[in-house]
């Protein structure tokens, strides 16, 4: 992969003025060979492996960032789904023992998060799956750097409504387990979860992966916004081409970093996730891109169409630049982490229903939004079911990261600090769907699942 002088200078401008960075480098690590009946031995062995690999990841990523002049913001690890690891462990506290060891490893290594504390329950739950599910409030409430997930639906298997009904109650317990409900910010409910996702909270090292793989998440909302702002007269055909060319360039940069870091670590390079991921920094906003296209505010009529155009251009630009595009590779629209999304909610331009409509064309889902603390478990389950149904029916990844913030009402603001930002508490429809989800059972997969 060769780069011209013009590309180098252009990339330097993106870094200096438009917030271009490598948002996350995530080393996926297989732990299946450490499975043991003794939870203490499993925890010790997992700690030792992850602490050692994590230290190398942090050291090499810092050195590479300095040598290339390209910021690498987050260094993370992901593991084999925890439910697989504790399968033979008889100890009742095995999930907590493992989680504490993982959290300690993350602290010692200096990685931001370890993902993978979760289970794949789209068709049913094993005893180990249920133990992991029930442990989530205590685990995520008492650790700092552990992230959890559940895959509750797929296009091939359908949707496990029994697990979703139970998850509503678990989320209520999770919200009460830590200040401001922040434990919920470290958990995501998925449909069609990818096995090579570098972004938290949903990263895990899938069963089809090698012993280790280095996955990279790039991010350039500021870069894309800058080129959109420079072409106010472009029609939508031209605008799509402009965005595709821009994403092509930042994807090449991301793959270059990923391949070099993987080489230094002596592990296979996995994928480059081309998702546009906003931050709380001024100008680093997906919402501002949509507004730059001509929307008065995010949530106005035309928002879903504008987002569809953006997503399409991002995917095509990334696919042209690399044969190793994977993970989520879409556009994140988290309410709490995007200044334009926050403003839109506060002004009444963006509702929860419109946000859900937008997720039908993006590849991430309902992300980092807060609802009143008294939102019932059944309503939380129904919100999750709605979103996962979009993913199941359309053969795409969707997820939910919802925070029922204790003690809050619609219109309040919850400040989580740091990269998690601040979330305006969004009103929820006052009419109930609880009786529907309470039926339980399994929602059958769509007809498109029969494709053999």
How is this structure best described in words?
The chain has helices at residues 5-17, 39-68, 82-85, 94-109, 127-142, 161-177, 221-229, 236-265, 286-292, 303-321, 339-347, 352-359, 377-394, 434-437; strands at 21-29, 72-79, 113-120, 146-154, 158-160, 187-191, 212-219, 269-273, 365-372, 398-405, 413-415, 422-424, 442-443. It folds into 2 domains: 27-191, Anaerobic Ribonucleotide-triphosphate Reductase Large Chain; 215-435, Alpha-Beta Barrel (Anaerobic Ribonucleotide-triphosphate Reductase Large Chain), CATH 3.20.70.20. The protein is globular and about 65 Å long. The chain is built from 14 helices and 13 strands. It has 452 residues and is α/β, with parallel strands linked by helices. Helix 7 (221-229) runs parallel beside helix 9 (286-292), helix 8 (236-265) crosses helix 10 and helix 10 (303-321) runs parallel beside helix 12.
What descriptors fit this protein?
about 450 residues; alpha/beta; Anaerobic Ribonucleotide-triphosphate Reductase Large Chain; about 15% strand; globular
